[in-house]
Amino acid sequence: MQAMIDTQRLCDDFAAQCKPKAQCLIGIEHEKFIFSRYDHSLLHYAGDPGIQALLTRWQRFGWQPSFEQDNLIGLKREGAAITLEPAGQLELSGSPWADLHGVYQEMLEHRLQLSKLADEMGLGVMALGFAPQWKRKAADWMPKSRFHIMRGYMPKVGVHGLDMMTRTCSFQLNFDFCSEQDMRDKYRVAMALQPLVMVALANSPFADGRDSQMTSYRNYVWLHTDSARCGILPLVFSPDLSFSTYVQRALEVPMYSVKRNGVHVDLAGRFFTDLMQGALPELPGEKPTLKDWQDHLNTLMHDVRLKDHLELRGNDSLTLEHSMALAAFWTGILYDDQALSKALSFIEGCDVARLNQLRHYLPEVGMAESAEVSVAGIYPAESLLAALNYVTALAHEGLKRRQKVDVDGADEALYLQPLQDIIQARLSPAEKWRKLFQRQWQGDLSPLYRHATF
């Protein structure tokens, strides 16, 4: 393996990821909780039913197994992967697609496969951002060495890191960039506008069996996980943002580990610059590979992060329909030149400090009060609702201009409709669950396990 030498090569690696516009694709990462239908307990790794047994049965659909030290920890097939989060949350890392129709078909197939297996094994599947009742102690840690390193490190840097690992699920989207300037434009727009859709599609109102009084308890948890690598990244709004400055910022964030001989070596709190010098006592004289650098980038967990693509990470896990609405929102803005240009103008006067204040406030915000939430100094709009309406219209126009149609002649704008319905009704998924919990369910969360399914 060829060793890394200097930061220039790290910058060159980012530059090498630029793609022609026609080759820019859409990718998704969808996490969900798996539990027993009989007692609503989280599924453990071993046993039948168990996570290992579920992954074993899944191979009949053509998936190939992935192992760590003889433990089955995931599946892969044709550019896609099924992986495990620390407490057994199941993640689909989808194949990259040229349009939303391909994304939808892949997610639909995944849901159908999982539903079939769940029926056979007596399992339930829940798409929520935070565990509604399960305590942290209920988690059965998956047999992945990286998770155990993070388990020891997280309490040193934040109060909710272990909750993030064991009790959250997200829906993430991946988009390509064509140049350094294109990366800069998309990164800024994504970071600036993400709070709007985080409110509209908030989907985690419950924690510890109670109403958390928030619409996204997951987003609250993330804000108290690790300030060095979570939340808003101010650099994104600096005129100095470039591949080089992002490299420098990433080098300032402590490492977790590197993988050697199939197992992660604990380097929590160490710095990549020392590894580049061969100065780490755990790996005396050893220098990193490009894969080590890419793995380190994967530990930066801001609301939007830069890797070989841009990854938008701010949303709770969602149903298929709401997942597609979010994918449509970002595709219409980031992959249409006119929409992206108008979005850049919309955020031109964005004050990062005020954006950060909104980011810390938004776990409590619902669509019901969105017309009264001020966005002064962030967006040129009268309220959060008005800003959301404006950028959703941009997305709709962008999707129409893309002219990507399915076999029935429908364009991608059809996937945006559930978000438009939420805006019209001023009712996020979290607010819908809260109303049911308070009225029809009379404070009983049991029906949630039937209804909050992916």
From TrEMBL:
Q: Where is the signal peptide?
A: none
What is the E.C. number?
A: 6.3.2.2
**Class of this enzyme:** ligase
Output the Pfam families linked to this UniProt entry: GCS2
**GO annotation (BP), single:** glutathione biosynthetic process
Keywords, A to Z?
A: ATP-binding, Ligase, Nucleotide-binding
Q: Which Gene3D superfamilies match?
A: 3.30.590.20
The terms under GO molecular function for this entry are:
ATP binding; glutamate-cysteine ligase activity
Question: Which InterPro entries does the annotation name?
Answer: GCL_bact_plant, GCS2, Gln_synth/guanido_kin_cat_dom
Q: What is this protein called?
A: Glutamate--cysteine ligase
What is the native source organism of this protein? Halovibrio variabilis
